[in-house]
Design a protein that fits this description.
Elements: E1 3-7, E2 12-19, E3 24-28, E4 33-39, E5 42-48, E6 54-57, E7 66-68
Antiparallel strand pairs: 1-2, 2-3, 4-5, 5-6, 6-7
Length: 69
């Protein structure tokens, strides 16, 4: 997962995740964030895509990866 600050002055954080429903990588922001928990593979960021599908990404993973929940 790639976190990036697009506007330094506002501190908005965005992240990308692959959405199976949409069929491609989508850019998500703070409104899509659901929860951050510690799972068996480390930290898990739980999100809801713009299409409504839930998913999980692992911020510590070396390559962008997400899995639908």
């Amino acid at each position: 997962m790639d976190l990036m600050v697009l506007r330094e002055q506002s501190g908005d954080m965005f992240f990308s995740a692959y959405c199976q429903e949409v069929g491609k990588e989508v850019l998500l922001g703070p409104d899509n964030f659901v929860d951050l928990v510690t799972g068996p593979d480390g930290f898990e960021l739980h999100y809801r895509c713009h299409c409504g599908r839930s998913g999980v990404v692992h911020p510590q993973a070396s390559a962008p990866a997400g899995r639908a929940a």
